[in-house]
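ok so dumb question maybe but i'm new to this and my supervisor (M.) told me to 'just get the structure for EF-hand domain-containing protein' and walked off. so i did the thing. is this what she meant?? sequence i used:
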Amino acid sequence: MKATFLLLAAALSALAGAAAAQHHQGHGGGQARWAEADANSDGRISRDEFVEARLTRMTAMDTDRNGVVTREEMQAAMAQRRAQTAERRFDRLDANDDGAVSRDEFQAQRAHGAPRPRAGHRRRGGGHHPEQVTLDQVRANAGAMFARMDVDNDGFLTEADRAAIRAVHGEGGEAAGTAEH
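this is what came out, is it supposed to look like this??
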């Protein structure tokens, strides 16, 4: 059961940070979530800020406001996130805003360093997931996740922690950026 919960929590983390791999390209993603989580704008995220940001994102998925996120609510939120990501990607590629991406526009974007999938990258997940997760479960799991991400154990998530995480997990790794903040 604990493993199942952790898988669902990881899925919620992935949803909450779906654009983490793009945060260095300035397309919203992790950098925006970092700023949102950093409630007092001091450039670092405390445990309380981290937990609150996670609860805020989960609450946004809880469309019927009953304190739990069902599989259906999560799937709807993930579909919305994918649609938003696709829209942003299309807008970046469509350099002349004509509503179409030409081969030249596509190649030009690649030539300017657009991200490519990492070798060996694969999605997490699979297996059985509970039908729902409660806000209390997310709150309980958030502390453990914060502890794993606080690489230097100073009680705050900082750019140094983000860099250390990226060095181990890569741009799109579990704890990349604030993805999971």
